[in-house]
Amino acid sequence: MTIWNIDSAARHLLDAEADRRDITPITDDWAELDIATGYRVQDALITDKIANGHTVVGVKLGLTSRAKQQRMGIDSPLTAVLTDKMYLEAGVPVDFSRFIHPRIEPEIVFVMGEDLAGPGITSARALAAVRSVHAGFEVIDSRYRDFKFTLPDVIADNASSAGFYLGGIARGPFDLDLQMEACLVRVNGQVVYSATGAAVQGHPAEALALAANSLAARGRSIHAGDIVLTGGMTDAVFVNPGDQISAEFTSLGSIVVAGGAAAPRC
Ligand code: OOG
Ligand code: MG
Fold first, then answer.
1. Ligand 1 in contact with 160 (CB < 6 A)?
2. Considering 22, 172, 201, 225, which has the largest number of Cβ atoms within 10 A of its Cβ?
């Protein structure tokens, strides 16, 4: 029997990730896991990754669009941490030997030019701190069976973070209309989802401001050079071996990702 606390919950999630094994929601066994405790588990999990050589490269928001909130059955955005090991080189297929049940979702990504510390950050102030805007494709891989979790569970699981691709085109934050920036998601040539930047909190800069303000409540801030994933614009699609999945943006270019070869289950 597991004695549940911050460290054992973090260890449980880290082991599931390492073993590519899905688990039942921690809240099923540990009802005391609330939002604040979930963030403490997330912190413990990141501390462990840093001790094992990972470097923090930025933050991500999750559940910032209605499409994502409705699919996951949770209507509250959350933040999580990005590390260097999650960065996926353009053209490299999704490696099934690394993931449990990867899904991929299109995102608008900011690279910060200045520090951004809440509280009281507005979207205008947030956008002024951005150096460049990029297309992104996030690979999520919940450690929970069938992506079924409560808000504290998914916060503890670092918001299903697994990997992310960045598009090759960089635009200045005021060189495009982020609300109107559209994205088409295709699976094997077929359009399956579409959205504009407005899907993300009305404007992706609102999501950035939300991240700065909610991080401030935990004594954290966003730093110059950080990568910020603003959240899936559409629902995510499952990646299957051999699939070709693309996200085509109006002015941020396209990202094409292939599902690699099937990996044997261990
Ligand atoms: C949680 C992660 C959500 C997003 O962009 O909304 C997320 C999940 O859907 O498993 O990354
Ligand atoms: Mg995401």
1. yes
2. 201
Give me ligand 2 centre to Cα 55, in Å.
19
Between helix 35-51 and helix 6-19 the angle, nearest 10°, is 60
Cα(153) to ligand 2 centroid in Å equals: 16
CA of 134 to the centre of ligand 1 (A): 18
The reported pTM is 0.98
What are the structural domains of the chain? 6-258 (3.90.850.10)
What is the residue with the minimal CA distance to atom 4 of ligand 1? 62
Residue 88: beta bridge partners?
165
Structure tokens at 72: 């996951």
Provide Rg for the chain, Cα atoms.
17
What is d(CA 147, CA 53) in angstroms, rounded to the nearest whole number? 27
Residue 168 carries which DSSP code?
S
CB neighbourhood size of 207 (10 A): 29
Nearest CA to ligand 1 atom 11: 62
Q: Is the peptide bond before 241 cis (omega within 30 degrees of 0)?
A: no
Query: pLDDT tens per residue, the chain (266 residues)?
Result: 789 999 999 999 999 999 999 999 999 999 999 999 999 999 999 999 999 999 999 999 999 999 999 999 999 999 999 999 999 999 999 999 999 999 999 999 999 999 999 999 999 999 999 999 999 999 999 999 999 999 999 999 999 999 999 999 999 999 999 999 999 999 999 999 999 999 999 999 999 999 999 999 999 999 999 999 999 999 999 999 999 999 999 999 999 999 999 987 65
